[in-house]
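Everyone, carefully examine this protein record:
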Amino acid sequence: MSGATVSVVIPVWNGRAMLLALLEKLRAQTYPIDEVIAADNGSQDGAAEAAEQWGARVLRIGSNRGFAVAANQGIEACRTELVALVNSDVEPEPEWLERLVRALEPTDVWFATGKILSASSRDRVDGAYDLVARSGCAWRAGSGDCDGPPYSKPGRIEIASATAAIYRAELFRRVGPFDDTFESCLGDVDFGLRCALAGFSGAYVPDAVVYHWGSASLGPWSPAMVRLIARNQVRLVAKHFPAGYWWPILVGQLLWGLLALRHGAGWAFLQGKAQALAHRAPAKHQPNASLARILRDHERQIRQGQRDFYWKVYFLLCPGGTD
C-alpha cells in the first residue's frame, strides 16, 4: 500500500520518558506519518503534556480505563487508511513502519506485526505473534527465546500483538473495535480470534523490528496484571469456546493458577476468576468450524516452539489438540 495514509495511536498511562523516546523514534521513521495520536488514560507524570509539546494530538480520557478504551478512542479519531497501534514502551527501528505498510500490499492482508525484541536484552525475543490454546491461555510465540531463524520467517498469522501492529482502518468497521471489557490484557487475542473467524488474516514481518521494555505500567507478575489476565481468560473462553473443551480449560487454568501462586500472585489469580464469574458473561459468538482448526494449528505451533514446563505438563494432560 505504498502511499497509503497512516496514523499512529499510542495508548498512554504515565511513562513520560519512554513516551518521549518513542515519539523521537517515530520522527525518524522512513515512512511518512500523517498524525500521531496519544490517547491518555489520566497520566499524572506529565506524559500527556509532553506529547502535546512534541506535536502529537492528545485525547484526554481522564482516568485509567485500560488499554482497549484508549486504543478504541484513538482509532475512532483517525481519518487515515491505516492505523498503527503501539505501546508507549516500545522503540521501533527506522524502517519498522515502512516494512509493515509494504506487507499490506496484498489485498487479503488486513493487519501486520513485526518481530518484537526485548529492550533490556536485545538478542532475545519478547514476542513475534500470539497463539492461543484450547485452555484459553495465550502464548506469545518466541517469548524469552534467543533470536534466531525460527523467528525470521515471514508468514500469515491470525493474531497480532497490539504491542506494535498496523491495521487497515476498514478492519475495525467490519469486525468492530477492541472489546473494552478486557481493559488491558488479552483484548488483542479476542480481536484476533474475531478477525480469524470472520476470514481476515494478517502477516508476520520479521524485518520490521521494535524493542519492548515490557509491562512497564503494571509489571509482568504484579497482582493487577495477574488479576486481569485471570479474569480475561474466563471472558475469552465464555465468548468463543464450546463446552466440549472443558478438560483443556480446567487443566490449563489450574496450571496457570499454580504458576501465579509460584510468583506470589495466587490471591490475585483467585480474585480475577471470582470477578469473571460475578459479572454477566459476554455474548457468545456463533459456533464456527474454523475455531477448532485455528486452535489445533496454534497448539501445534506452541508445542513445537515452547520451552516452558507449564506447556509440557499441559500437553501431557491434554493430548490430541494437535492431531
Observations:
- Residues 55 and 118 are 28 Å apart (CA to CA).
- Residues 223-240 form the longest helix (18 residues).
- DSSP finds eleven helices and twelve strands in the chain.
